[in-house]
């Protein structure tokens, strides 16, 4: 249910606030929706009851991105989806040197509030009056002095600000992903009209790099605790090869191109490494491999292999039991002979889907389990049998 300014005003009322607080831990499963709505309808209109339920659900979803303050904030579905997580917001706020920043297409105000928390003077602008009303509420709720105003930035932006952060919408009105930077809402080319000492643009991490070549600057791919989060285009920085940033609770790591020659290609060794997705998107697989004294299985496949587990947070690691050239019947016999009845499939450069491969292997579903990595070595398909990691996730080793 899209929220209106009337809905926001209601949500800020004492009537709504009492219900949001009292129902903060309510069961919001589908089976509980009708009884909860019936309960709310005893003292609220149908629209008001639906608005409270919508905000309760959004606050539940917001916990991951706003772990400390989400229960006091207001959201829209689109605004919450576009907002960065806490580590990314805090990191980005530290990267600006300027004291006065414009946050363009500010949405629900998450980045403006991060700038304010970092003792910056921030003005957030957005074309949507509902988002601006929510941003103002969130600023008051968190007691952070960011300012907000409704503005169509295509008609111009205020002067006198040393830095600009631009976060255009990457989904259309129907929620479909927008894949080209000149189709963003607004488009990336709008930045050519702006003048500021620092300008950064948040982009989709899956963007085609050719779309931003003409803009220069530095392109940064950000991984938050191993999950690709976003791309940032720093227009004021000298052009460099894309670089990777890994955000963890305790520290921030960067990786840049080392400019060295290609690395060796070998058969699988003792351990298999899967580089962090920010490394993959920044094209730094070989840089990481050289740092770890690893080799590649194939020049076009982003797996690395080493003799001993590598002390790095930049990759996940599996111990290799054995490997063999891929042939379906041979692989099935090999797994059955070793009592393996369950496999977890990982693949790169392998055409068959995991579900199709599992169906065609016809394993018995009992006995031992393993991770089965289907990939290529020197252009030829292979299967790598790896130990099953504990807790369902390969470790990021830091020995």
Describe this structure in words.
The protein has 399 residues and is α/β, with parallel strands linked by helices. The protein has helices at residues 5-11, 14-22, 30-41, 46-62, 77-82, 86-95, 110-117, 129-142, 277-281, 285-291, 328-337, 354-361, and strands at 100-104, 121-126, 147-150, 163-166, 198-203, 218-224, 227-234, 243-247, 252-255, 271-275, 295-296, 304-306, 315-325, 340-347, 368-377, 380-386. It has a 9-stranded mixed β-sheet. The chain has a 7-stranded mixed β-sheet with strand order 11-12-10-13-16-15-14. A hairpin with a 2-residue loop joins strand 6 (218-224) and strand 7. 38% of the residues are buried. Mean pLDDT is 93; it is low at 391-395.
Strand content: 15-25%
Large-scale geometry: globular
Q: Give the helix tally.
A: 12
- Taken in chain order, the helices and strands follow as HHHHHHEHEHEEEEEEEEHHEEEHEHEE
Q: Indicate the mean pLDDT.
A: 93
Kindly provide the radius of gyration, computed on alpha-carbon positions and rounded to a whole number of angstroms.
Answer: 25 Å
Instruction: Give a short account of the largest sheet.
Output: 9 strands, mixed
Given the helix and strand composition, which structural class is it?
A: alpha/beta
The total count of strands amounts to 16
Point out poorly predicted stretches.
391-395
Placed side by side, the strands forming the largest sheet appear as 3-2-1-4-5-7-6-8-9
Helix content: 25-40%
Distance between the termini: 50 Å
């Amino acid at each position: 249910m899209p929220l209106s300014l009337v809905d926001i005003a209601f949500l800020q009322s004492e009537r709504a606030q009492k219900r949001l607080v009292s129902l903060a831990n309510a069961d919001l499963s589908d089976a509980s929706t009708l009884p909860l709505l019936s309960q709310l309808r005893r003292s609220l209109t149908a629209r008001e009851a639906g608005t409270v339920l919508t905000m309760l659900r959004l606050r539940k979803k917001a916990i991951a991105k706003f772990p400390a303050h989400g229960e006091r904030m207001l959201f829209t579905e689109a605004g919450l989806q576009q907002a960065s997580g806490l580590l990314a917001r805090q990191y980005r706020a530290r990267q600006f040197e300027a004291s006065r920043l414009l946050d363009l297409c500010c949405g629900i105000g998450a980045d403006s509030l991060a700038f304010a928390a970092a003792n910056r003077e921030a003005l957030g602008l957005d074309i949507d009056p509902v988002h601006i009303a929510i941003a103002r509420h969130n600023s008051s709720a968190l007691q952070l002095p960011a300012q907000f105003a409704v503005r169509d930035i295509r008609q111009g932006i205020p002067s006198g600000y040393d830095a600009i952060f631009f976060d255009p919408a990457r989904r259309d009105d129907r929620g479909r992903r927008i894949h080209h930077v000149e189709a963003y809402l607004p488009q990336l080319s709008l930045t050519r009209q702006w003048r500021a000492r620092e300008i950064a643009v948040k982009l989709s991490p899956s963007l085609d790099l050719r779309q931003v070549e003409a803009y220069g600057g530095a392109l940064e791919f950000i991984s938050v605790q191993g999950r690709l989060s976003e791309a940032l285009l720093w227009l004021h920085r000298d052009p460099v090869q894309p670089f990777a940033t890994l955000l963890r609770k305790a520290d921030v790591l960067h990786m840049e191109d080392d400019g060295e020659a290609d690395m060796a290609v070998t058969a699988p060794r003792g351990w298999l490494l899967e580089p962090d997705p920010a490394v993959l998107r920044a094209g730094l697989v070989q840089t990481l491999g050289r740092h770890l004294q690893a080799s590649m299985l194939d020049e076009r496949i982003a797996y690395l292999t080493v003799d001993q587990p590598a002390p790095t947070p930049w990759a996940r690691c599996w111990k290799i039991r054995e490997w063999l050239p891929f042939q379906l019947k041979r692989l099935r016999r090999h797994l059955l002979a070793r009592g393996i009845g369950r496999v977890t499939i990982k693949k790169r450069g392998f055409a068959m889907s995991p579900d199709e491969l599992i169906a065609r292997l016809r394993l018995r579903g009992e006995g031992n389990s393993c991770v089965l990595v289907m990939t290529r070595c020197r252009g030829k398909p292979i299967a790598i049998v790896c130990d099953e990691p504990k807790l369902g996730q390969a470790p990021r080793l830091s020995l």
